[in-house]
Amino acid sequence: QAADKMLDFLRNFADHCHHAKEENHLFPWMERHGFSRQFGPTGVMLREHTLGRHYMQQMAAALPGASHGVSTDAQAFAEAARSYVRLLREHIHKEDHCLFTMAAQVATAEDDNELMEAYARTEVHDIGAGVHERYVALADELAQQLGVVPRAVAHAGQACCGHGR
Question: Is 2 helix (H, G, I), strand (E, B) or coil?
């Protein structure tokens, strides 16, 4: 059950909320401001989003067998999960220390406001009102259940997942 909830969190919070904001708003904005998709940071991030989705698909495919004690499926799930965790840690580091820094160097206060408004529209219209908070609560619940110390989801003064300044 915890693995199923974790996959739900990854699909709906990490991918449909966070990655959607980047792919639909931040990356096009960056590309309009001179950042190359092919050779620049947005292309790298998009490839990592695709790879993360691949790992989620592998975990989802292995989960039914793993939950019924099929050792090869449990091993496949664990390997995909470890790969996803490794990818996500590196991805977040790149976001925090490269992507967001690069965007902040060219963004005006007006740009920040426009992006924040676009993120807010995504939260309400694409994700659904209250869904963000529900997934933050789910993350806290899973962390407590699994004995993991939760990290802050958003930094003070920022929107979901560090977007914004």
Answer: helix
